[in-house]
Design goal:
Length: 220
């Protein structure tokens, strides 16, 4: 077994452990952190497969932006864990069935093996040692030609998820002193200054000074 295979099994083991902890962690923040670890190991696997663009994109987009957004949303939602766990055993059979199906598909793919990069380049008619070959360019051509509609559907789904996250975290505070700028612009002069009529002031009457009581003479 060479070093590349050893790294593959190491990254795959950490990825499986992180994925397991994502669904078993009691704290949602810990689950998000384990998901970030899973994405980092998946990026390492992409690098081993010589797909540098996908690995770097996974790190920059998901670890750098999406997962940080998920972390802030989870921390702001203040999820009640007791209500989340109520339907766990109710949905467990369906989840186990889907998980087993995905695991069977992964085992079938790994059993069949992956075509090498040289074979894929030969099929495309471009040699791996050619100066004009770029896997990033080939990926872009596939994304915006053959897989254009799936990319647009994925973009719409991400947009809906972003709007839903904003709607969930938007809370109107009653104790806020923020002022609507539209009300400030449309205000009129008579609404800013109100003259209250008051009676004219009168001169106060002179104060009556009372004489101090004379002390009684002291008895001898």
């Amino acid at each position: 077994m060479d070093y590349q295979t050893g790294f593959f099994y190491l990254f795959a083991a950490v990825l499986l452990f992180a994925g397991y902890r994502v669904i078993t962690a009691r704290n949602p923040v810990h689950a998000v952190l384990f998901l970030m670890l899973a994405f980092s190991q998946a990026a390492a696997l992409w690098l081993l497969l010589k797909a540098e663009f996908l690995g770097i994109t996974l790190v920059l987009v998901y670890l750098g932006a999406v997962m940080v957004l998920f972390l802030f949303v989870v921390m702001m939602l203040d999820i009640n864990l007791d209500t989340v766990r109520l339907g766990f055993w109710k949905h467990f059979p369906l989840a186990a069935l889907l998980g087993g199906l995905v695991a069977a598909e992964l085992i079938a793919v790994l059993w069949a093996g992956f075509p090498s990069l040289e074979a894929a380049a030969d099929v495309a008619g471009v040699g791996t040692n050619a100066a004009n070959y770029s896997n990033t360019r080939e990926l872009g051509v596939l994304l915006y030609t053959e897989y254009l509609y799936p990319i647009e559907v994925a973009a719409v789904i991400l947009l809906v998820a972003m709007i839903a996250a904003i709607a969930l975290t938007l809370r109107h505070r009653k104790d806020s002193k923020a002022i609507n700028p539209a009300l400030q612009v449309h205000v009129r002069a008579h609404q800013r200054l109100v003259v209250v009529p008051m009676a004219p002031t009168r001169k106060a009457p002179p104060a009556v000074v009372e004489a101090a009581p004379v002390e009684e003479a002291k008895k001898p």
